[in-house]
Automatic annotation (TrEMBL), chain A:
Keywords from the UniProt entry: Cell membrane, Electron transport, Heme, Iron, Membrane, Metal-binding, Transmembrane, Transmembrane helix, Transport
Designated name of the protein: Cytochrome ubiquinol oxidase subunit I
Main subcellular location of this protein, as a coarse class: membrane
Cellular compartment(s): Cell membrane
Source taxonomy: Bacteria, Bacillati, Bacillota, Bacilli, Bacillales
Sequence intervals crossing the membrane: 12-40, 61-82, 94-117, 129-153, 187-208, 220-238, 317-341, 361-384, 413-435
InterPro entries, per the entry: Cyt-d_ubiquinol_oxidase_su_1
Stored Pfam families: Cyt_bd_oxida_I
UniProtKB/TrEMBL annotation, chain B:
Family listed: Belongs to the cytochrome ubiquinol oxidase subunit 2 family.
Record's bilayer topology term: Multi-pass membrane protein
Keyword line: Cell membrane, Membrane, Transmembrane, Transmembrane helix
Natural source organism: Paenibacillus vini
Membrane-spanning residues: 12-34, 55-74, 80-105, 117-139, 164-188, 200-222, 234-254, 259-278, 302-329
Subcellular locations according to the entry: Cell membrane
Name assigned to this protein: Cytochrome D ubiquinol oxidase subunit II
InterPro entries: Cyt-d_oxidase_su2
UniProt keyword Membrane, yes or no: yes
Keyword check for Transmembrane: yes
Pfam family, one: Cyt_bd_oxida_II
Length: 455, 343
């Protein structure tokens, strides 16, 4: 591994940092929204269960924010450390959104600090709830700014190239490039889905363990319903993203679909393997589906990969990432939908026996929502990033021209692998301890709330 | 004033903000751990923890601001510093990551008792990080980063054998402890916590001597390292004299146990004068003789956009900072610990 060239090593290290950061960043974007929802219901319905829910979520949330902050700092610094040539050429193009992202995060950090330490300080509970608005706006705004930057690297515009340097920069044109709307909304919606799914999973897990209190049922209802709404929006925006790709980044869509010849009535290929001569075997072929995905009608002309020079094609491996992510997306809509239909579901033998009246398989499915959506987010980002290879700024600068020339990237990679292992393991340990340490029932008794475990 | 000067002033101010806030933070982490080790725990630990908890996230942001702004205003500096600082920069990143995470684990994660292992991580990193970051100042004096055959190289041997490097590291270490102790003494005084105040005042006085000695040592090492920079410093002697006067007054006030608020403001002014005097005489170079603010400046549109974003950001940021300070710093009830703790 150490004998790889700095470019490959830089790619691996950046990829690794983002791989870790994305999970915590998505949680950081979505959970404030969920906490706000719970607290809002608590205030509006004067229901202390929801307030307690918000409180417990917030407590765990800080731990994940900490890891999100430090991995975010890492990627912020690595941009300059690993890609100095890229920063020299495009640094001015990307500094503005980065700068604004930091501002948004600053606001979020300040108000989160206030929120956590003012649970009982205001006379009116609504004032405490209002503190969450800047937190949620701040976290979503930082996702917005950072994603516009990534969108810019996919569909760059708003500058001219003079002697190899980006010049005459128009910041707003660059920020609101064609990729921005679909990318930003997909990132936000999928982060909300992940967070709702994770929290739903926790509630379902408690019910599976035989906890029957009404607290858990309320938690499940709020989170599973939210997960359904968010998953459906993610899927709809995903469809827009497909149309965007067909128009602006046809090589990415073509590589994802193993679509070589430009044609109308293009079929969509699901799964399969690629033979030596580029023929597709064992795949499920859906006629017209790719044309419909790309343009809404079967007669849409979909550009094939053969139109692009070989050294400008993305790796064909992204096909699997795309398929897997879409499959998971379907599951993410389906599972919470089944929850919404719970009254009409066939009643199994176990129903009502210590599972809060839900079928066991449904609860297991809901527990899986978190890991599934996490996988989908990782796959989605990997698809988006591998899919623009070999470019770092599509059409202008290749990845191989942008990396550091330093010979020490290998040892830094090992250092960061150890760091991330330590961080993730310790984060999970601390979170588990935190929730085991103080059970819901104890806390409800402490706060004088009824409706805990009915024995 | 030209955009170049505005840009570098904005960035230098941010770095100064980081210097003060982070020093308080890093030093507090160290003192907090030290107090638990030596059994002074109940005296000072709680008051330190009460200050640190709501603000720890804010500190990191100052640093990122600086780095991002530097790349935006002066893209060439990213190229030189980015390539050369891969190893020290990554090490500092790892330390920052460990410190942030373990701070949160100890404060929010563990149940009532302090986890000594967690505290050791952020106490120790609290001293290592300033040492690692301060070396950039030594590098910026030139001679250590060189470009050969289109590759940027950091000369480790001349870096470590240089007395100036070590003088900057020592200065960073002692001033972190000094700034932090001065602030915490003021904070404890504000809370009316006599025991904590006495301990922290002791720390502040203890570290004041080494701080001024380290300042003088670094000051004269600049002359050996970079005579041109030193001559520029002598052209604005009033700034360094003002710094010294602020130092003497601050220590006098804390010695007499009065005007504690002013005492800490004087500490800020002491470092402010020295910091801006040092920065001003360093101009026009960001990296001596290789990156100057005039040659590597971003284009004008971007400069205007960055400055606009900066002003707009401040409009939101300053009221928020005032709010958090009113809630946690200047709220006597909170400082005394009468308000309920974390949720």
């Amino acid at each position: 591994m150490l004998s790889w060239d700095p470019v490959t090593l830089s790619r691996v290290l950046t990829g690794l940092t983002l791989f870790v950061h994305i999970v915590f960043a998505s949680i950081g974007v979505g959970i404030p929204m969920m906490i706000a929802l719970a607290e809002w219901r608590g205030v509006r319905k004067k229901d202390p269960h929801y307030t307690l829910l918000a409180r417990r979520w917030a407590r765990g949330f800080v731990i994940s924010v900490a890891v999100g902050v430090v991995t975010g700092t890492a990627i912020g610094l690595q941009l300059s450390l690993l890609w100095p040539t890229f920063m020299r050429v495009a640094g001015q193009a990307i500094a503005l959104p980065l700068f604004m992202e930091t501002f948004a995060f600053f606001i979020e950090a300040i108000f989160l600090g206030i929120y956590l330490y003012t649970w009982d300080r205001f006379k009116k509970p609504i004032l405490h709830l209002l503190l969450l608005i800047p937190v949620a706006i701040g976290s979503s705004a930082s996702a917005f700014f950072i994603t516009t930057l990534n969108a810019f690297m996919n569909t760059p515009q708003g500058f001219t190239l003079k002697n190899g340097v980006f010049a005459d920069f128009q910041p707003l044109v660059a920020m609101f490039n064609p990729a921005t709307p679909t990318k930003v909304s997909h990132v936000l919606a999928s982060s909300y889905t992940l967070s709702a799914g994770l929290l739903a999973g926790i509630a379902a897990f408690s019910l599976l363990r035989g906890r029957r209190g009404v607290y858990f049922k309320k938690a499940l209802k709020l989170t599973a319903t939210a997960a359904f709404v968010f998953a459906v929006s993610t899927a709809i925006i995903g469809d827009f993203s497909g149309k965007f790709l067909a128009h602006y980044q046809p090589e990415k869509l073509a590589a994802a679909e193993w679509h070589f010849e430009t044609m109308t009535k293009a079929p969509l290929i699901y799964g399969g393997v690629l033979g030596e001569n580029g023929e597709v075997k064992y795949a499920l072929e859906l006629p017209y589906a790719l044309s419909i995905l790309a343009g809404g009608t079967p007669n849409t002309n979909v550009i094939g990969l053969n139109e692009f020079p070989v050294d400008e094609r993305p790796p064909l491996l992204i096909h699997y990432m795309f398929d897997l992510k879409v499959t998971i997306g379907v599951l993410l809509v389906l599972i919470p939908f089944l929850y919404l239909l719970r009254r009409w579901l066939p009643k199994g033998k176990n129903r009502g026996k210590g599972k809060g009246g839900y079928p066991k398989w449904l609860l297991l499915g809901i527990v899986a929502l978190g890991p599934l959506s996490m996988t989908a987010i990782e796959l989605g980002w990997m698809f988006a990033e591998f899919g623009r290879q070999p470019w770092i700024v599509r059409g202008y600068m290749k990845v191989s021209e942008a990396a550091t020339t330093s010979q020490s990237v290998g040892s830094m990679l090992i250092l960061f692998i150890i760091l991330y292992l330590v961080l993730c393991a310790s984060c999970i340990t601390v979170l588990v301890k935190l929730f085991r340490g103080k059970s819901v029932d104890d806390e409800m008794r402490e706060l004088g709330i009824s409706g805990g475990e009915r024995k | 004033m030209s955009y170049e000067i505005v840009g570098i002033t904005v960035l230098w101010t941010f770095l100064f903000g980081y210097l003060i806030v982070a020093s308080v933070d890093f030093g507090a982490g160290f003192f907090s751990y030290y107090s638990v080790l030596t059994g002074h725990e109940n005296k000072v630990h709680n008051i330190i923890q009460r200050y640190l908890s709501p603000v720890w996230e804010v500190t990191n942001v100052f640093l990122i601001f600086f780095v991002v702004g530097l790349v935006g205003f002066f893209p060439d500096s990213a190229y030189f510093y980015g390539t050369a600082l891969l190893v020290p920069g990554s090490l500092a990143t790892v330390l920052l990551a460990l410190r942030g995470a373990y701070y949160a684990y100890n404060t929010y994660g563990s149940s009532k008792e302090n986890n000594k292992a967690y505290m050791a991580v952020y106490g120790a990193t609290g001293l290592l990080i300033p040492a690692a970051l301060s070396t950039v100042l030594a590098i910026s004096e030139g001679g250590i980063i060189q470009e050969q055959d289109g590759k940027v190289i950091l000369h480790w041997s001349s870096f470590f054998s240089n007395p100036y490097t070590w003088s900057v590291i020592i200065l960073a270490l002692v001033s972190v402890l000094y700034i932090s102790a001065m602030f915490l003494a003021f904070y404890a005084g504000k809370a009316g916590d006599k025991d904590a105040f006495e301990v922290l005042r002791g720390y502040a006085l203890l570290w004041s001597g080494p701080t001024i000695l380290a300042c003088l040592f670094a000051f004269f090492q600049i002359n050996r390292q970079n005579p041109e920079h030193f001559r520029n410093m002598l052209n604005i002697p009033w700034m360094f004299i003002a710094s010294l006067i602020c130092f003497l007054l601050a220590v006098y006030f804390i010695w007499k146990k009065k005007y504690l608020g002013w005492s800490f403001i004087l500490v800020i002014l002491q470092f402010g004068f020295a910091w801006f005097g040092y920065g001003r005489s360093h101009l026009p170079y960001i990296l001596y003789k290789q990156v100057s603010i005039y040659e590597s400046f971003t284009n004008e549109t971007m400069a205007v956009a960055l400055i606009t974003a900066f002003v707009a950001g401040l409009v939101v940021l300053i009221p928020s900072l005032v709010l958090i300070m009113r809630l946690f710093l200047f709220d006597a009830k909170y400082v005394r610990g009468e308000s309920p703790k974390k949720g």
